[in-house]
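Notes from hallway chat w/ T.B., transcribed later so I don't forget. T.B. wanted the structure written out for a chain they're using in a teaching module, and asked if we could keep both sequence and structure tokens in one place. Agreed to drop them here.
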Amino acid sequence: AHGPQTVAAYLSGQLLTEDYYVANKLFKGFLGTPHLDTNSRLCMASAVAGYKRAFGADAVPCSYEDLEEAELVVLVGSNLAWNHPVLYQRLKVAKERNPLMRVVVIDPRVTDTCEIADLYLGIRPGSDAYLFNGLLAWMDAHNRLDSVYLERHTEGLEDALNAAQQNSGSVEAVARECDVDPERLETFYYWFASQLHVVTLYSQGVNQSSSGTDKCNAIINCHLAGGKIGLPGAGPFSITGQPNAMGGREVGGLANQLAAHMDYHTPGARELVSRFWATEHLAPALPDAPGYKAVELFDAIERGEITALWVMATNPAVSMPDGEKVRRALAKCPLVIVSECVANTDLLPFADIVLPASGWSEKDGTVTNSERRISRQRGMLPPPGEAKHDWWILCEVAKRLGFSEAFSYTHPWEIFDEHARLSSYENSGETQRLFDISGLVGLGQAAYDALAPIQWPVTQQAPRGTARLFEDGRFATANGRAKLLPITPRPPAQPLSDDYPLRLNTGRVRDQWHTMTRTARSPRLMNHRAEPFIELHPDDAAQAGLTDQSLATLTAAAGEYRGRVRVSNAQRRGEVFVPMHWTDCFTKQGRSGALIKGYTDPLSGQPEAKQGAVAVSKLSIAWQATLLLANELGTQPSPWCRSDYWARIPMASCTRWQLADSQPVKDWLAQVEAWCGMPVSLWCDDPATGRLRAAGVVNGRLRWWLMVGPPDELPGLAWLEARFNDATLETQHRRRLLAGCDDGAVDTGPVVCSCHQVGQASIVKAIHAGDTSVEALGARLACGTQCGSCLPELKAILEEERPHARAKQTANTEVA
């Protein structure tokens, strides 16, 4: 099959707005295919749909400064401390300055964000709609609705209230559905209803659901009902993760959009965009119906409907749900083109054509963040080798297809100028679009290069941008009124069962981002969580016969996942958390996407990544081992990758491999010689326990080091890693190789502060020496003095160790 409907593009929030604009213009405007979507579908589509249903436009009403001006901040499904650490620090400082400010954290997991919480509600996963429907019903029952605001500026209250009262009519009923204490629940309701300046900040815990749009609207309903919007320190605030998830939405990067915040169903939009792009004469013409959303897109590829796919700046072989199905689709697709700046990803083996693209520090253009703020991204380095900017690559393809005149850009400012002109094109009267950056038209290259961050809309009436939307109570709907929606809560699409009795949650860890193609290049960032893991409540771990740091398998209807167990009271009973980051480049069967079925929200198309169903079992192994190899030997998959479990952990001077397998090894010395292709120089073993340590030294240089035994027996690796840098091992160092450390070497423990590489043991030692505050620890060790994301963990260690330190000091005083 051929023709425009067989061609597709899958883009990313890591593209700049200018890249996005050219891609959207080429595929929809000139190739005539609607099948262009973005990985923002996986994170923000439900938030977009919720705003559009309520406000008539994808318009985040708030600014970051509203968090600092609020009397109450409600964090829902957001581990702000780890995922937005700079914003978290702003909120933390604001709370310290204003003792009257309260923070409520709503999350199934106890996270580091709870450190600043005045109230924590550990709700059952997926029960958010019950919670906020209950809040709406409570506000009505206690006369806390803003009747004046509702009458002047909204519609739909009666239907929304009826729905809320039917399914969430009492605190007791909501408490049962959410599995929380009724008194704590009513405290939250009272706080929310009693304050005008309330910001509800919500993220993937709300969006990544088969009913995510409804959950977003349940939150928005409460803000509209209380008039808590369009004011300083007030509003429903959806926060994104990717640097340009909003910029992609502005240009039309979603399959259900055309361009410039216009959809296919927007009256006259198709003709307007076609006139602006001058595509009326083309056959095929601009599409007249939405294309396939992300999950639908890969389903269509598997069916053979899509025969050519261009992927830019994303890794769907890892990040998509139903991971094995997506890989089958990619393998089947006749033509897969990948624009990438990293040479080794899980997607590249499926590519027929790989185009070297510029990376983040080389790109030049703009991005738009969660508060609608457009910022310049200025490249610091020239693209290496043959790497080119994505917009340039797209333009060259367009020219070779005969569209030279429409894609003759020579600089990103020309693309941005066209994007700005489209935002204001025929944008007036009753159908005026909210997204309007006409005030940035005609900047020229010099002004574009000097552009300071600014929030849209940017118009003649608002030349300095717009910090806050809907201050006048007029919305972007046809009648200017915001809509309250009747919400009927729905359970997760995948029910628990005897076969899969545990509820699965997925998410980020502190020091990694997306699929680790960039962050894993930093050994410092690998120190915090070095391997894929499975976080379980102690009761669930005990029931499965698992202990902390043992290896386990998660099984789901879609696939399997293997990781190291972390036993934690932060987890609710019956629930499991796994990180989203690990790929086949770094581990065996550690991809969380393999566990997630492709259930989506019917309105937004966003997949349900937060509420899977799994079973856990112990991974049967005969041995575990740690293998360190010189970097030139150990960065790529090798014979040991046939083991049942492996994880590759980049280090500065060597590569660490954690290995485990169910088959016993009869002769470890022969095994490691076969693995490394060089003889054993030193070894010691204990056949009774199966423990062994060995090393390979060639021409005086350490080439590999092996320990057979569980990883908790590892010495601190800093000294050992340094030996891989020695041009010739000194005699005393060679003697200590099997011990793995020098005489008197101190193990600093697991890294807590990645910025300054401060380990837990060093922190504990300092606390016992009298540094019993975060400030004192920072002064002595520098931990917590840079990005701040380790501060909650520092405080947790302080809370645990202070009593021991005081007892020790008391004992020393008594002895003295």
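Follow-up for T.B.: DSSP finds 29 helices and 31 strands in the chain. Might be a good example for the class.
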